[in-house]
Design a protein that fits this description.
This protein is of the alpha+beta class and about 240 residues long. It folds into 2 domains: about 5-115, Ubiquitin Conjugating Enzyme (Roll); about 130-240, Alpha-Beta Plaits (2-Layer Sandwich). The chain is built from 7 helices and 9 strands. The strands form 2 sheets. It has a 5-stranded mixed beta sheet with strand order 8-5-7-6-9, with helices on both faces. The chain has a 4-stranded antiparallel beta sheet with strand order 1-2-3-4. Strand 1 (about 30) and strand 2 (about 35-40) form a beta hairpin. Helix 2 packs across helix 3 (about 95-115). The chain is globular, with a radius of gyration of 19 Å. The protein starts with a helix and ends with a helix.
């Protein structure tokens, strides 16, 4: 039987996680009476979770519903994705569940676009070859994660960027679309307390940094800004991380 101290500690962890999540996802809504957490994405796509009293100690949030903005029921696909991740007990995992839902939304949208094209997807020769992403982490302290963040295992020569460890962790990458997507996917596969892509955009030319190529680790937000050469790109970064 759980002790009073244990129950209070679990509740405190849950409250702290909710505070972090609402800072990351302002669209989150918490219904205290029903103990349900609703996440809204892409305008009207929605994810509904029921959060038990003993989460995050001895149980997981329960997936109630998951819908695409076109009203397609994605609950089974989302549940399957969550099950594949093998999320552990006694860890805060709601952010990971939201990321799983986002991946299912993207997959569904791509499939829908293929159907609209009659099942044939033609390559646009003007399709952007480059992409820039900005990732916000609750923290980046683990040595292995820091090493992975700074050393892509796939096409490292195709990516340039900056990483900042600590609280919060920040990752900025720009380069070949496929190389960026592969690196971000590899990072997502790690266990994170919070992992949020704050900015993602395909473009005809990548961002320019003070160094090229490769990824440089720095110690502060100001140093990240200094590594980015273009003033407009600096502004984009500051807005993405909530400084401007």
């Amino acid at each position: 039987m759980a002790t009073v101290d244990g129950i209070n500690a679990t509740k405190e962890r849950r409250v702290k996680e909710f505070e972090l999540l609402t800072a990351m996802y302002p669209e989150l809504q918490w219904n205290e009476q029903r103990q349900e957490l609703k996440y809204t994405a892409e305008g009207s796509a929605s994810l509904l979770l029921r959060v038990p009293d003993d989460y995050p100690g001895t149980s997981h949030p329960i997936l109630i519903s998951a819908f695409h903005k076109d009203k397609t029921d994605l609950r089974d696909l989302t549940k399957g994705k969550i099950d594949e991740m093998g999320l552990p007990l006694d860890e805060e995992i709601i952010d990971a569940i939201i990321q799983a839902f986002e991946e299912i939304l993207q997959m569904h949208s791509k499939n829908a676009n293929r159907l609209e094209d009659g099942g044939i997807k033609t390559k646009n020769i003007s399709e952007p070859k480059y992409k820039t992403v900005i990732i916000w982490l609750h923290h980046l302290l683990n040595t292995n994660k820091r090493k992975l963040a700074s050393n892509p295992t796939s096409d490292p020569e195709q990516i340039t960027g900056v990483t900042k460890p600590g609280y919060p962790g920040v990752l900025v990458y720009s380069g070949n679309v496929t190389a960026i997507d592969d690196h971000v996917a590899e990072l997502k596969s790690q266990r994170w307390q919070a992992f949020q892509v704050r900015f993602e955009e395909s473009m005809s030319t990548p961002w320019s940094f003070t160094h090229l190529p490769g990824i440089r680790e720095v110690e502060s937000m100001s140093e990240v800004v200094q590594e980015i050469l273009d003033t407009k790109d600096q502004e984009t970064f500051l807005k993405a991380v909530g400084v401007r």
